[in-house]
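so ive been stuck on this for like two days lol. basically i have the seq below and the ligand is nicotinamide-adenine-dinucleotide, smiles is in there too. i just want the complex predicted, nothing fancy, no docking runs or whatever. if the output looks off dont worry ill sanity check it later, just need somthing to start from for the group meeting slides
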Amino acid sequence: MRILVTGGAGFLGSSLVESLVNLGHDVIVLDNCWRGSKENLRMVEDNITFIKGDACVSTTYEMIANPSSVDIVYHLAAINGTKWFHEEPRMVMDVNLNSTLRSLEFAEEYNCRYVFTSSPEAYGESEIMPLGGDEASVFPVAHEHQRHAYGASKYLGELAVQHAVRQGLDARIVRPFNGYGPRLLGNEYGQVVAMMLQRAVHQGEIIVHGDGLQTRSLTYIDDLVRGIEAAGLVEGLEGMSLNLGSEEECTMLDLAQRVAELVGNETGHTVRIRYEQGHPGDSKRRLPNLEQTKKHLDWQAHTTLEDGLGQTLRSML
Ligand SMILES: NC(=O)c1ccc[n+]([C@@H]2O[C@H](COP(=O)([O-])OP(=O)(O)OC[C@H]3O[C@@H](n4cnc5c(N)ncnc54)[C@H](O)[C@@H]3O)[C@@H](O)[C@H]2O)c1
């Protein structure tokens, strides 16, 4: 098949592209390298078409040769990373919404199957667990904080996708829960697992936000790629929303302790844990409802946190 992956140079996208190429698909990557890089695609660079361009702009899609032969669009381009949500909320909304609307229009024009990478953050601060079924999204008043620039953009993206489905498009939604693995960014604009590992390796300490009792469903990249890929390749999933997350719920303090031990064993250094105030609006728990995913994709995460953390650390050293 001929497949377009927006955001294909990023953390999730580059592994998805590798996997699709290995399955024999003809893959076009569209990315402006705002956060991802061509280096992430080194393993498959000779087997893909790379378009450097802005997914928010409709003319970018004119660079795709023979657009009518594109079978599937996986839309992953977005601004991700908690610090951006607070510092640049309008940029987050602009990119996440407009890239979704433009890529959706492309899929509609050329009748491609469409997979939207949403997020459990589309549920805002919902405390109903497990998360990601038919419960309502809950967002606080806008003056409190800006965090939900991201979650709300994903919520609106889901609305746009569901509207396209009503108009006849074969579109599907996936919601990855806290992905981690090689190539995850660990700088201050990165994501928690890589941030903890990187700081533990280079500075001998780990920062835990708040009391560390907030939980996440940390899901290894290989499991996520298997699920995202299947959400595009399996027949009969029009209009479905599929959560992709590990059922191994982990507190951030537990994660920090595991990282400290792992890095300590690997480097021979002692790793301290330091507490800091977290970002406002961080959810207290995140555990996926996998009912639909198990039923329709026969998917669940297989990689244990211990294995996944070990593989991620080794990729960093
Ligand atoms: N990583 C996770 O755990 C996770 C969880 C839930 C949802 N998601 C979603 O999955 C997708 C991929 O996330 P990721 O973690 O790989 O993030 P990422 O930042 O590594 O990848 C996003 C990619 O989009 C590109 N991009 C940004 N703006 C663009 C634009 N205007 N035009 C073209 N490309 C642009 C970036 O350069 C980057 O390569 C995102 O939509 C994200 O919201 C990720």
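The chain has a mean pLDDT of 96. Residues 6-7, 9-13, 31-36, 54-56, 76-80, 95, 99, 117, 119, 176, 178-179 surround nicotinamide-adenine-dinucleotide (CB under 6 Å).
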